[in-house]
Every structure is written in structure tokens, then in C-alpha cells.
Amino acid sequence: MSRLDESSRYLNDKSVRFIYLSQEDYIKAGGLDMDGTIRAIEKSFTLHAEGKTIQPAKPVIRWGGPETEETRGRIMTMPSYVGGDVDVAGMKWIPSMPDNPKKLGMPRASAIIILSDPNNGFPLAIMDGTIVSAMRTGAATGVAAKYLANPDSSVVGIIGAGVQSRTQLMAIKSVFKEKIEKIKVFDLNEEKTVKFCEEMTEQLRTNVVKASSAEEAIRDSDIVVTATMSTFPYVKGEWLKEGAFHSEISFWDTAPEEIVHYDKVVVDDYGQVEHHGVDVSYRAVKEGYISLDRVFELGDIILKRIPGRESEKERILFNPIGMSIHDVSEAYRVYLEAKEKGIGIELNLWEHPHWV
Question: Is the pLDDT of residue 167 over 70?
């Protein structure tokens, strides 16, 4: 049923229905289709740059200062509206508790997403947002690498062997296909790293090997990703080869003073980055290591308002905060697939409103 048909239905039928998608439903409806995710994320980057989105600053529940996000944890609420031909509103509620894997044997992050019709405000879907969050984070790096990495990139170095690292590599492989010949992985947990390398070698059909240090993983890599829960910086800008593209999706891996080694810094939305006040791109500007005019937004590069990579020798840092519009656009993509395939459970918000 189309949105127009659904609105017409309310003239006679006052029930409000939405679908619920469990994590298993979400996957069944195409939630692990990285090619589809990348298309959705690139489109939302474009709509955002065109001013066709609404994205309030995200409130954060913390038990202490920003540094406690990687120790005690946090809960973020991320609302937004994605316009254009997407035309959907939504919100992600995402707790992140770093001790969960060790203490409970459960994921660090869990999330719920609500999608709403922006014309009448009624819910369209409530779904697991954990897969959405991981997939869209990987896809953001994939889109950035498409525009900012050297097109002949063949070697990837990644720090961290967790869930986020999986989707980072899925996205990079989705963009560069068979050009990627080798992926080096370093994580402090050697046993976890070995298992990760075995699983990703099989999944990506690419040579994924364990590095003995963060420096080894980064040196001579065309694409570098830092995706850890580190509470201190360890990346040295001098480790990056000429022409390297570095995506830092975590907060503390690179110190602000190291940003001087990069020729260009790109973010998803600097206003959001500034509001959060943690990302290294913001701290480098605040502490005077670089000027704000050296920080660019990826949407402007996609729309060719400003140049992306200008030479094969440029070292470029991508430092995204993570945007709600990506969660909403990706969740909506899978919601449409679920509706078409009849996946999920239909629930009623009400049969008839108690008050009007």
C-alpha cells in the first residue's frame, strides 16, 4: 500500500498499524546488503548537502565526561528527517556499553529505530537498529573512500577486530572490489584477531592477515581504518604513506597534534562534530593545530562543490561523527524491502484512538 493509499484509509479505518522487524527479520529483508547500504548512505549524504534533511544535535546520556563513553558507556538519541524522494522521519536510540562483551558475552551496542510518516506523524516501523548502525558506519567509510582514496588502492590496514571493523572492510571491498589484494589487522586481543582474519578472509575472499603492531598495519597501507575503544592516542601521522586515506571512526586513536600530517580533513557534518566535542577533527581545530578552513564536509565533495582528492600524494583523514540521517535512510531502505516481501510482524498502535 502506498503512502497516499494509507492516508486515504484513515477516512474510514482509524486503526494505526506499523511493522516490527526483529534483528533476524531485518537481516532477512536485506540488512546485510552492503551495496544497497552504500547507495542509501551516499544518497543521504547528497540530500544533506542539498539542505533536504533535518538533523537536530544528538542528546547524549553520559555517566561522567566525554572520556567515560569508552569506559562506562553512553546512550545516544538520534532523530532526523530525510527529504527528497525518501521523505521519512525517524530516530535511533542506541546504548553503547563497552563492558558488555567481556561481562555478559553480549554486544557492546544495541539499538532501536522508529520510522514515522512525516505527513501524519504515525509510525511506519519499529525495528532492531544494531545491524543498521554497524552497516551504515561501514558504508560511510566506503562512500568516503570512493571519493577520497586513491582509485588504485590495494592494501588496507585496520586497527580493531570488532563488529565495526567487519562492516568497514565489507564497505571498502564493496567499493574497490578485486582491487583490494591484502588487508592487515591489528588488535590487542591476538586470539580475537586470528579468528577475525580467518572469518573475513572467507567472507571477503581476500587475503586478511594479522599484523604484529598498529604501526605495521598502518605503514604502506593505501587505506587505513581505526575502529577501536582505545582511551588514548597511539597513531602517528608519520606512519601513513604518501597518498593514504585514513578513516577514523573512533574518538581517541589519533591525537590532535598528529593532524598536521594530513593535507585534508573531511567530516560528515562539522556542526554535529562540534556539538559532540570529542572527535579529533574538532579537537585539532579547538587546540589550534589546524584551522577550520582545512576541514570539509563529504556531501560538498560528492556534489563537486569543492574538490576531493587533488593529487595521488595527498594524505586525507575522514573523521565522521555518525549521522542519524544515515540510520534513517538505511532503515527505510530495508523497511521497504520488508514490506514488499511480507517480512515482519504487523502491530496496531491502536484500533481506534481513545481521544481525538
Answer: yes
